[in-house]
Every structure is written in structure tokens, then in C-alpha cells.
């Protein structure tokens, strides 16, 4: 362009830029159009309460804990948020376990096989279901076409894809069991361990090695299952000690009472309502006591939580005061927890109370925000102090000074996956106990690489990439990722504390929002099918190597 006048060069550059933006806008219009279209109908899978596969068989007592009673391929393709997820195989297993009282029961667990799977590495992922409703179970939530009320767990699938992209099998248990006993640690821990047993016994159809190394991950509600599985393992599943490489979990809930009081009257109040329902569903003897303690005008609204998923809880119960305030739902306020029968149940569902309850024998990595408003730091700190004083062989406690509960969930998982990858690769974890405070766990060694992994897999997965084959295993940090991690940690430190997501929770139960999400869910699936049927390459469109025509 050296012979073209400068004014003409500017004109050409301006119009090239406009042309590029025009192509991008046309591409986005295609997405928008398809997102709201209902051209293709999706037959939704049956919810667990309607699906006979979930029924506990009459002869369940004839099986051993961890036995596979039956299995099937999922009734629908798996998905990550709105989009189908392309894994090589998936299975749903009905597994024998026991409840908090030792009574035989069964639950469903989902096994995902990525392309190029490594049979010797298994990630047991405990999702934060945070619901007392069976129709919010993880095994159902991850199915394409399932209710969008389960979107919380669908977001977590994007984290599961990190493990799948590293070619690990991923096992996703419905650890709350058939009674949806949210908040009941013993039930959750046993189911998690029995899910691992079942996965390791599934070689004939999944290909998982019987002596595969297993890592556990969970955040917030998922930490209940991870923490209890770690404490119960020595007594409940001693044979797994040599197979569980370690457990990484954060937002670590050890005491339901403290969490319930901490979130009372906030946008997270619905979680406490759901947890109380979950506990009553497991400990039915508490029901009559509870009815005598609650304002009867609130009773039907309280029980409504048994039909709601996490997404809906915020909209129905935001700012509800169960135990505090001038007019709490519970007549005695926080003194409710002092009623002997209630106190006994709470004691039985609190971690790290006595050495005789069990001490984790496998390596642990605990990540926590110091400003956590949902799970106050005193909870994981007490468990860390007690377990360490009782001889736990390896606990690494990674604290972030700049994050609360929600932010740590977003900025701490990279550290957890970096730790898991190291122990899978044979690195020796810390000896004894260490406690480290950083501005953010984004600065944990290797954490930044997992955010590259997260974004790479998420974007490629939208366009149908084969997870584990077309996605890259990004384990190495780059200078750019390190700089970004440092900048973000400084920014979060300056912004601390971040406000609670009140508006998002308040809007979460709106009918209009549900309808919009349903349309988007169906429409975005249409986008991918439309691209494939017309041969459109979205990357080529964005790079102006290909055009699309809207008619």
C-alpha cells in the first residue's frame, strides 16, 4: 500500500475493520436467532422421581457396599451447560451403599470416559448439588434436555472437563442418596466411597483399572462428601487407602449449624432451608420436633424446598431469617440447635469432633477464602488443627486472603487441579501439615495453567470437540498466564470484599428467566447442528475466511 495516498489507506483500513465487524455481527446474529428458535424439539429425559432405574430394589440387602446392582448407558447425551458434551463413553451405575444408620440402600453414579482415557487415573467429582430434591441429582443434571433448574451442576461440568482433558476418567456420584439427604455427611461420605468402589469394579465395561489411582474433588456442598469420605475411609473402606492418591476440596463445610447461622438472612438463606429439609429426610425423628418449633405460617413454604434445586432456592428464600432477626421462622431462634435431639444429630453430622470418629489417612489439599461468608474460616481451621494434632499424614491448607465463598470457588479450583495432577504423576505430597496464606490461590504453583485448560476445553467443547482428543492437556504455565494470575490476584485484593450476588439470586426463580433459559438451551443446540449441516466453520467466519448468509 506504499503507493496509495495515506487518506486512501485510512479509508481502506476503516472499511476492512467495518467489514470484519459486520461478519462478526452476522455470526452473532446467527447464534442469537438459533438460540431463541424452537425449530427442533428435544425430548427431555425422565427425572429421577419418574425413572425406574433409580428405584432401590427390594433385594438391596443381598449386595455388598460398592456392588454394582445394574448399569446402563445414559438415556441422553451428556452436556456442559447448554451444549452437548462429546466424550467417548458414559455409564450410569446403580450402586449399593448404606445410610447414616447402616441401613442398606442404593444410589446412582455416573462414569465418564474421555477420548484417549488413561485407565489408571480416576477423578471422583463431588458436585455442590445443595438440594433436598431427588430431581436435582447430578446424574440427571448432566443429561442433555434435563431441566434448566439444574444449571448449577451443569456449570460444574466445565470443571469436570479439565480432568477429562487430562484423560482422566471422571466419576460423578449422587452422594446424597435416594432420600436427597443434603447436609448429612455420613451418608455423603459412604456413598462417595462406594461410588469409587463401584468404578474400580467396572473394568469389564468401562475399562477402568481395578487398581487405578483415584483423586477426589469437591467445593462447598461437594466438600461435605469429600471431607466425610476422607474421615470415614479408614474404617468404612480401608482397602481404598492404597488407591486414593488424595483429596482436594474447598469452601470446606464441617459444621452445618455454623453455616446455617452465617447465611441466615442473606441471599444464601435457601441453602440452609434445603439442608434442614435434607437432614429431616434422613433423620425422620426430628420432623415432629421441627413442626413444634417453626412458625406454622411458614411450614408449607419451608417444605417447598424439597422440590427445588439450588438455582431456585435463591429466588424463593433470599433474605429469609430462620434463626436470627426480630421474627425468625424458628420460635427459639438459634436455641433450636440446643434441643437435645437436634444437638445429637448435629454432633453426628459434624466433622473432626473426636479422634475416635476417624482421621484421614490419605493426603488432603484444602483451599479456602479467608473472607468466606458462607463457610467461616473457623470451620476448616478447626478440622485442620484437630486432624493434624491427631496424626494426619499430609494436609496442605491453602488460604486466599482476598476471596469469599463464591470468588474462591472461581479462583481456587486451579490450585486444586494442579495439586491433583502432581499426585497423579507420582509427586510426593507435603509431609505433615502446612498452612500457607496467599493473596489469591491463583498464585498457587501451576494453578494458572488450569485456567488455560478450562477456557480451551470450554470453547472447543462448544463446537463439538472430542474431549480428551481434540482438547489439549495444558499443564505448563506460560509467562502470560503467570502475569494474568498476578494481576488478577492484586485486583481481587483491592476489591475485597466482593458483595453477595443478591440480584442474581433474586432473579433466579423468575418465570421469564426459566422460559428464556429453556429457549436458549434448545436454541444453542440448534446452533451446533446448523453449523454442521451447512458446513459453517465458526472460526473461519470470525477470521473472515468464510461468509454466511442470513435469509
UniProtKB/TrEMBL annotation:
Regions that span the bilayer: 20-42
Record Pfam families: LIP
Keyword Transmembrane helix: yes
Signal peptide start and end residues: none
One annotated GO molecular function: triacylglycerol lipase activity
InterPro entries in the cross-refs: AB_hydrolase_fold (IPR029058), Lipase_secreted (IPR005152)
Alphabetically ordered keywords of this record: Membrane, Transmembrane, Transmembrane helix
GO biological process annotation, one example: lipid catabolic process
Reactions that this protein is recorded to catalyse: a triacylglycerol + H2O = a diacylglycerol + a fatty acid + H(+)
Gene3D superfamilies in UniProt: 1.10.260.130, alpha/beta hydrolase (3.40.50.1820)
Name listed for the protein in its UniProt record: Triacylglycerol lipase
Species in which this protein is naturally found: Candidozyma auris (Yeast)
